[in-house]
Amino acid sequence: MKIHFLGTGAAEGIPVIGCDCAHCTRARNEGGKLVRERNALLFSLPDYELLIDCAPDIRNLINKYQITKLDGILATRSRYDHIGGIKEFEWWPGQLDFLAEDALFETIKREHWTEMLDAVMFHIPYYPGSSLYFNGFSIIPFAARRRRPIFGISVKEGQTRVVYTSDTPARLTNYARRVMKGCDLLIVNTPTFDTVLENHINTIEAIELREQVGAKRVILTYINHENKPHDELEAFVRQFEGVTVAYDGMAVEV
């Protein structure tokens, strides 16, 4: 499978509006990999292009990377930075599957949905722990956080398995750890470097998590201005085998 990291920033993106910190200042002045749009990924699977989350920047990202084929969108949560761009698809020329857990879908409908989207999107519910089978690949969603409908996913094609975590804390359920165990690639949200957060993993914790679950590779994404700038973060992770820092536009084959 191929994974295209369209946007790799956290909720505020980089540079943050109105922020004059050193990280944001460098991003404004130097551009390139220092700039991060809000988080969105595109999985290229057998005869199926699957967008993970629908960031507010999604229109610009789809145009920038010339994405003209899309089969489905999978929502991991209802917060604005994950789903705020959904209305852009009112003008999508074809039909799209919209994969979301039932309670999550009801929240998205209440806060973000429109009648025009009904003509484009067909809701396909997923259930944590239950495999959603497509011809050629399968997806197993899992609860990424307690008390809120926020999900990670395990995507399997043949013998290859990729796990993506959305807004996942370091304190994971035993089930989530079992899902991650031995995966070929673990994609982890790391908004900060070493600041301990209740609702997110930081960079240091993500590197430790990779060792704990035996993931072959880990990619850090969902990065905000409280983490190190891309070049500094990339230099830091070089000491760890199999750790990569994502940047906007990066594509990987697994």
How do the strands and helices of this protein lay out in sequence?
Elements: E1 2-7, H1 22-30, E2 40-45, E3 48-52, H2 58-64, E4 72-74, H3 80-83, E5 96-99, H4 102-112, H5 115-118, E6 121-124, E7 132-134, E8 137-143, E9 151-157, E10 160-164, H6 174-180, E11 185-189, H7 203-213, E12 218-221, H8 230-237, E13 243-245, E14 251-253
Parallel strand pairs: 3-4, 4-5, 5-6, 10-11, 11-12, 12-13
Antiparallel strand pairs: 1-2, 1-14, 2-3, 7-8, 8-9, 9-10
Q: What descriptors fit this protein?
A:
alpha/beta; Metallo-beta-lactamase, Chain A; 7-stranded mixed β-sheet; 8 helices; 24% helix; globular
Just give the CATH class.
Answer: Alpha Beta
Number of domains: 1
Strand order of the largest sheet: 6-5-4-3-2-1-14
Please write the string of helix (H) and strand (E) elements: EHEEHEHEHHEEEEEHEHEHEE
CATH architecture: 4-Layer Sandwich
- The N- to C-terminal Cα distance equals 6 Å
Question: What structural class should be given to the helix and strand makeup?
Answer: alpha/beta
- CATH level-4 homologous superfamily: Ribonuclease Z/Hydroxyacylglutathione hydrolase-like
The helix content is 10-25%
Largest sheet: 7 strands, mixed
Mean pLDDT: 96
- Examine the coordinates and then state which fold CATH places here, giving the name of the CATH topology: Metallo-beta-lactamase, Chain A
- Cα-atom radius of gyration: 17 Å
Q: What's the β-strand tally?
A: 14
Given the C-alpha coordinates, what overall shape results? globular
Q: How much of the polypeptide forms β-strand, as a percent range?
A: 25-35%
Number of helices: 8
pLDDT < 50 stretches: none
